[in-house]
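Lab notes, practical 5.
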Amino acid sequence: MKKGYLFSLRGVYVLDKIIIEGGRRLCGEIEVHGSKNSALPILAATVLTGDKCEIHNCPALSDVDAAIQILRHLGCKVIRDGHTVEVDSSVITVSEIPDDLMREMRSSIVFLGAVLARTGKAEISSPGGCEIGLRPIDLHLSSMRKLGAEITEEHGRLYCSLGKSLHGADITLSFPSVGATENIMIAAAAADGTTVITNAAREPEISDLADFLNGCGAKISGAGDSTVVIEGTKKLHGTCHTVIPDRIEASSYLIAASATGGRICIKDVIPAHIGALIPVLSEAGCDITTSGRWICLSAPPRLKRVKMIRTMPYPGFPTDAQAIVGAMLSVADGTSVIIENIFESRFKHVTELMRLGAKISVEGRMAVIEGSKYLTGANVVAPDLRGGFALITAGLAANGKTVITGTQHLDRGYEAPEKVLKLLGADVRRINENDGTEKQETRQLAENVGKPAGESAEDCTDRHSQEADDRCNIRRGK
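Output from the prediction step:
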């Protein structure tokens, strides 16, 4: 194996690194991509239809690539054109998913319900993805058993089959698991009879999946509430569907702008989906305005501490934003506390943040963050997806140069973050780790993004700030 390369199911990853020259305020206007956590279960659910489905606003991420590879392995014809994915599932040739495909992403377990409902059997292994703690699939398996599946395990593989067909059931989840709720909804949509899920996950992505399935002819009600009712339908059909905006991506850029004392506006976002983040940013001293599908933020020169943040299932504070807001609070004035209630190993990024000068102590599920006046750039490694963006946030706020490796984690959930950050005036570039060659598209973007010829970096930052103020004032009705 050549140094600097990582082999995967798609061949060879060229490992890149992101280089940030910190200390610049993020100012300007961006739009977010489609939600990864919506796109993946929706792509899996296309297997049910035996027809053509067209999915719009589908983000260009490695996790989505992995889902497409699984669909093709199953026999589906998949065409991708930009952010549109067309899936023709009229022919399914196999019911097993190899280990290498399952290991590419943790949410690959969502294919279980779809394949089982379509073919009457399924063979899978445990899913992969970020190592942020246990995500037991017991809820998935027990739920499939209640729907009529017979499941055995041999040598790390799960063998699932149906005696006759899937049938409706009353299922009470011990925890409002997003993945389990999705799996049940997908399988039950094609089952005989009615399925009722109690203590279901309430995330917006659940509602988006229900909208897609209902568009295919399913009969699902209550999605987004704690009780979901699915009336099984014998025959589903294809549909066109547009994936909702990614609330975690939107949150990530709002937090990064806050850490740099920036002013940004984000369009094509649903503010209600990030309702738990807004009071946290307000407590830190940010001025936030929402209007329709817009959200604008103006951060103070120095953030204030946030007394206590507890991650909770939606509509509580999202665990996916925990690491990133922790990086932001590393430069706040005062001591903040974060308690992680969802995953037991989601502080792996802390040791890397400490390389930049962050003062964080972790005990069990609690992190105590003593804000510093400044951080200093350093070489760090992204341990996982959200931890990687936490390091980007810290690097943007730090003095000097920060070099981040492990960018393959970021590519799972952020589409070209270096490009988005350049739009906001950040000094960031992505280069090949082996030969130091900057990505051509990133370099071209840097040359062309809203920067008139002869304009200095300082003038560019000031102009972006004024433009953001103007846009926010318009949306506030000033």
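Observations recorded by the TA: DSSP finds 16 helices and 25 strands in the chain. The radius of gyration is 22 Å.
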